[in-house]
Amino acid sequence: MSDAIATARLQNKMKNPIVALILGFIIPGAGQMYAGSVMWGVINLILCIVFAITVIASPLAFVVWLVSLVLGYKGTKAHNDKMLNEAESESDQSA
Q1: What keywords tag this UniProt record (predicted)?
Q2: Cβ density class 37-53: b for 16+ within 10 Å, e for less
């Protein structure tokens, strides 16, 4: 397999951190779900909804939303680093 094909396949597997931020901005926890952490994304979504409904805890909804944005962004970065490390180890083994 040529290096161009391997590079294209690797780029298709990688995720865009900006997309995670945009998704998380629109729907709390969606960035984490995009990054691959579906369970934590759903938990953050439910927490944001419950906290937003409760008037006393509504500031907590904002905090949970911000945390889910950061975790979604960092999750995509970690996913991309993992993909790059796997590709490097495969190329080292084949060489």
Answers
A1: Membrane, Transmembrane, Transmembrane helix
A2: beebbeebbebbeebbe
Measured CA to CA, the distance from residue 16 to residue 25 in angstroms comes to: 14
Tell me the percentage of the chain whose pLDDT exceeds 70. Answer: 96
Q: Please, what is the angle between helix 58-94 and helix 3-13, to 10°? A: 160
What is the predicted pLDDT for the residue at 27? 93
The length of the chain in residues reads 95
Dist CA 10 CA 86 (whole Å): 10
What pLDDT band is residue 95 in, cutting at 50, 70 and 90?
A: low
Task: Return the pLDDT at 85.
Answer: 87
């995670």: which residue's tokens?
A: 20
d(CA 74, CA 31): 10
